[in-house]
Automatic annotation (TrEMBL):
It comes from the Bacteria. SMART domains: Catalase. GO terms for molecular function: catalase activity; heme binding; metal ion binding. This is Putative catalase. One of its GO terms (biological process) is response to hydrogen peroxide. GO terms for cellular component: cytoplasm. InterPro entries: Catalase, Catalase_core, Catalase_haem_BS, Catalase_immune_responsive, Catalase_sf. Residues 1-199 form the Catalase core domain. Belongs to the catalase family.
Amino acid sequence: MNGYSSHTYLWVNAAGVKHWVKYHFISDQGVEFLTQDEADRLAGADGDHHVRDLFDSIAAGDHPSWTLKVQLMPFDDAANYRFNPFDLTKVWPHGDYPLHEVGKMTLHTNPTDNHAQIEQAAFEPSNTVPGIGFSPDRMLLGRVFAYADAHRARLGANYKQIPVNRPHNEVRSYSKDGAMRIDPVSDPVYAPNSKGGPAATYPGQVEPQWAADGDIVRSAYVDHAEDDDFGQPGTLVRDVLDDAARDRLADNVAGHLLDGVSEPVLLRAFEYWRTIDADLGADIERRVRAG
């Protein structure tokens, strides 16, 4: 399957030129799927099917890979783009911002210790390198804090000293002590200080930044010209999915709605799907009513 950042990030180059960016990891294996019935049967008969398939493929030298492509939006385009470019639920049409190939990600080595290398792995969007920053995407900004908080609760305050999470470069921070502290530190760990200790300076590239305009309040996003919740899903249903995919979608939705959903909620669900696409909504209702 493909993978997408969904969130919008900010890139700045050595000359200080900024672009908003979305990441696309395109599967070099193609895209495969299971129908709902196949998935239900497989979940009961062999719940580890996908993990084992990945492990065995890597062990056999059949290394799966994904081609990384990005969409780049000039920094100033965001303010007046027809969709809110920071809305997690929206995509940028490729006709407006085409894909640019960047490189390839390959999975070539299996873990030797599932707990140490998989269960203790801590992924978080706040881990960035110079030149990559965040956008005003509110969900992303929330995740920048929330993921690290979750790791501290799950793995401990010093989770970044666990080998699978350890940075390749030395990290200097104000952090010291705490449970499972591995790397010793010597005072002071703070700056400024009068003891010849560390200084809060960084000789490299300035962190990517953006300025907020208007009041920062708890409210909905500012609407752009073509912002709505149903236009892009309708395009997906009518123009991207083929007949077989639309049939699977209707069958999956109807199957879940048949699982004890009350009549008032059913009526809202039918209206929701009709708003996306009238034919799809009618097909879903027909399947549910037929039982």
